[in-house]
Specification:
With about 170 residues, the protein is mostly helical. Helix content is about 65%, strand content about 0%. Helix 4 (about 55-70) runs parallel beside helix 6, helix 6 (about 90-100) packs parallel to helix 8 and helix 7 packs antiparallel against helix 8. The model has no long low-confidence stretch (mean pLDDT about 95).
Length: about 170
């Protein structure tokens, strides 16, 4: 990666510490925009944040990495925190989303499982990632009845089964 200048390195460290103290969506957006603008010189710190014991830092770093969509981050991200090693359900969904945004389909089954979550927030995160990362919209709405959602999840699983058989799409 490009190395930050000493001044920028201090700013990156300071902003990373501030992430733990963010209280509003505006704070999140402002910090996310800043890290995305800095770009490559902040990649090492973002990967460190993925492993932070602070869940805000983990979620933030995965969100910024996903938003960057820099495929060069894919392998380092996989090595830093393999999807199957993440025990926290929310982080696993966020990692699957980040992988998909970087072009790695391996997290799609995790996102499909998230569509069946009892948490509306997790369902929203997963469907947004699936729609954006696959360019598919199979009429899933997290607020629908459980029965209607189950039908939509079945349609998504059928789509994935068909796509997963396509050797050109597998990674």
């Amino acid at each position: 990666w490009l190395e930050p200048t000493p001044g920028l390195a201090r700013d990156i460290e300071f902003r990373a510490l501030e992430v733990s103290q963010m209280a509003t969506t505006d704070d999140f957006v402002r910090h996310s925009d800043w890290f995305q603008t800095v770009g490559e010189p902040a990649y090492t710190k973002l990967l460190e944040m993925v492993l932070s014991p602070d869940q805000k830092q983990q979620a933030f770093a995965l969100s910024v990495i996903a938003a960057q969509r820099d495929v060069r981050m894919l392998q380092p991200l996989r090595e830093t925190a393999p999807l199957d090693s993440i025990e926290n359900e929310q982080r696993r969904f966020e990692m699957a989303r980040a992988l998909l945004m970087l072009g790695d389909n391996s997290g799609i089954p995790v996102l499909l499982d998230g569509l069946e979550s009892s948490s509306p927030g997790i369902r929203r995160l997963c469907i947004a990632a699936l729609k954006r990362g696959t360019n598919q919209d199979l009429s899933y709405h997290g607020g629908d009845s459980e029965e209607v959602r189950a039908q939509s999840v079945a349609a998504w699983r059928q789509w994935w089964s068909e796509m997963n058989q396509d050797t050109l799409l597998s990674r």
